[in-house]
Protein 1
Amino acid sequence: MTVNLTGKDIISIQELSREEILAVLENARSLKNTPQPKLLENYVMGSCFYEPSTRTRLSFETAMQRLGGRVVGFADPTVTSTKKGETLYDSTRIIGQYVDVIVMRHPLEGSARRASEATEKPILNGGDGTNQHPTQTLLDLFTIDECQNKLEDLDIALVGDLKYGRTTHSLAQALIHFNSHLYFVAPDSLQMPNYICEELKAKNIKFSLHEKIDDVIDKVDILYMTRIQGERFADQIEYQKIKNIFVLNAKMLENVRPNLNILHPLPRVGEITTDVDTTKHAYYFEQAENGLYVRQALLAMVLGKLNK
Ligand code: CP
């Protein structure tokens, strides 16, 4: 079956089929091995970041430039007419008249969907509030496949802030396609939202809830750490109490599976100590690099320059 993502918005990981996900990963592998410096020559990407980012913004912008395309945009909405009260709809409608594809990050859930109603140009959601981060999930899947040599039938723990962490929402939903056994490790107040647990149940995906890393660390192939999302807490006293609840250090890795890989969408703010970085299990820096290839593949696919 040919996969064709030309013109498609990537708003939620649930809008991509298993075949489409695998096609993105295959194209990303190809671009990792064989750079294509002219593939997107004469195309322009709008980079619209209404919320801070290092990896998502810079890897998308680098991806576009390494494919020969150009980038316009902003990393700080206070320098745009948003500051004067312009709506997201109006801004996106205008930006869509200037560029060929828009990458957007925004603090509000549903913002990427709203933006997609304002323009025919593809919108790639770089994270909308606590909701979704589908391009992160694609690079997570690429990385899991790269370090485990498969995507199917893996035991995977998601650890940290599963309530507010959009990367874990998208990833849990994507793993439905690959028959994973999932372990959700979080304090009760930050556990995986019910709507996602219900989706997993409906698809007969095995999962269990835990409060300690030690309960799962020797049972899994992938330990996906996340930070507690301080910026999402209404009550900062509550955040201060909970922010250091999970700290992974090298000593905790003594009895893990030999093939265990530790991933993290980054940034980390203390939940993985630096002594883990030099263990054979750490794979989060490679994971961040892979964002470049996966985002190259996505840009080329939605712009109709790569199919599979
Ligand atoms: N993983 C991720 O989204 O990182 P940034 O917030 O730095 O983009």
Note: Residues 53-56, 127, 136, 265-267 surround phosphoric acid mono(formamide)ester (CB under 6 Å).
Protein 2
Amino acid sequence: KTPDRWLPRDPRLIRLTGVHPFNVEAPLSDLFNEGFLTSPELFYVRNHGHVPQVQDEAVLDWQFSIEGLVEHPLTLSLRDLLEGYEQRTYPITLVCAGNRRKEQNVVRKTKGFSWGAAGVSTALFTGVMMADVLEKAKPKRGARYVCMEGADELPNGCYGTNIKLRSAMDRDKGIMLAHAMNGEMLRPDHGKPLRAVVPGQIGGRSVKWLKRLVVTPNPSDNWYHIWDNRVLPTIVSPEESANKPSWWQDERYAIYDLSPNSVIASPAHDEIVSMDDPAESYCVKGYAYSGGGRRVTRVEVSIDKGRSWRLTDIDYLEDRYREAPRQHLCGGTLDMADYEASFCWCFWSIEIPSAELYSASDVLVRAMDDILGMMNSPWFRVAIYLDG
Ligand code: MTE
């Protein structure tokens, strides 16, 4: 029996974990060539199990509950969300916390499978602000987390995790209950008919096939919240980590905000770059993103193994919408006044004279976000002199 056999999937997608569950990324060049918005066909997929099958006729009747430490527990259908709440549309980049793990696995094997650099995608998500729904339910004093559960049935229960209630109530954080992607109903692999979208945080917090929101004083006790998406202290090896449940249960090691990241899409890895005319230049380009709503402010490229760095030009997706700051888009309102934070990837590029590239054996890239100049954390370096 092959689960998910009913689902059509794009043959260009690269499978990362055999036949099941479905974990895929697009070839990096295909993803990048799509531009800022990724089509649903090439949007990366991270599924822990089979995809819940929801017929189109049943979509509006999909129910989910808001319960726990709230004054007014609610059960809402997707129809209620569409009819009773303001619809919003925002461009949002989702990233799997494992994006680029392949490079790490080459240096030292981790417990996770090998994502290339395409475990990231961007779409215009339409839905309702989670804050609007939580306000109706009225969280009680002492509430700190919103635990979320999906409808997928997995070996260790359903998929679940939490976000902080403080972030969920803060509209500037852009956390949504989304039902559409690029103007069409969510595809089954991406949570049809309803999912959470948590911008600026690791993709694992954006629960798909959403069934329950439980407001709690404590973090989620869901198996997948505890045993996934954590960074244990580096002294714990992957082998040892299995014997340390108390470390896994320590919420301090749970990861939320994404960190700055940058990737070269062109030239591709191992590409043979032709140098017909040394007077010409080559356009080196790729993507970058950061987390927590911070904007990438600087992307630099080196062709001399990190000895010197050149500034690149950066093109921001959000800037495309600044000319019409309030507009109706994909069935929701996009309001850039609400969107000061940066929840999307940006594309950077730089022309490098071919003659200079000719002498390089590799190209490096690094990105910094808007905490540049503060919170400085490069390698600390001291000079020493030998005595005698
Ligand atoms: N939600 C449910 N219910 N089940 C899952 O397996 N995977 C999570 C998250 N939400 C998951 C889920 C992870 S780890 C990621 S990175 C994102 O969904 C991926 O979203 P996408 O498949 O739409 O790209």
Note: Residues 43-48, 94, 96, 150, 152, 159, 189-190, 203-204, 206-209 surround MTE (CB under 6 Å).
